[in-house]
Amino acid sequence: METDFFEGELGMSPWPSLVTVSALLIYLVLTINVGRARAKYKILPPQMTGNPDFERVIRVQQNTLEQIAIFLPSLWLFSEFISPIWASAIGTFWLVGRIVFAWGYYQAAEKRIVGFAITSFANLTLLGGALIGIVLSLFKLFA
Fold first, then answer.
1. CA pair distance 34, 26, nearest whole angstrom
2. What is the CA 48 to chain-centroid distance, rounded?
3. What are the tens digits of pLDDT across the range 92-138?
4. 59, 62, 77: which is closest to 137 by C-alpha?
């Protein structure tokens, strides 16, 4: 069975797969950062507060978890119904946004806004594009 350069053997593009693995790796690093901050600031589980620097680190991890629940399904639906290449490009934009968000938030809560805006824009683009692609696909199906 011969495969296209842009498509794996299961019919999945490797590009959104690479973005997915990258997102999970970023989340893993953010989770490890929470453990490191717990040790640094002596905040034992299950405690979630006590030091503003620790609270910012944990908010980065929690917010990323909230965002990734929207991002991953949207990435794959956009990939399936619109384009895996465009999904991956927008997904890469999301990854950069998460890094900018974390870096800024670790310094001060006010510095998270640019990264949050980038990831929000990417999420809305993927979600909206996926919805449009699904609706157009349904129109073709019943037309």
1. 13
2. 23
3. 999 999 999 999 999 999 999 999 999 999 999 999 999 999 999 99
4. 77
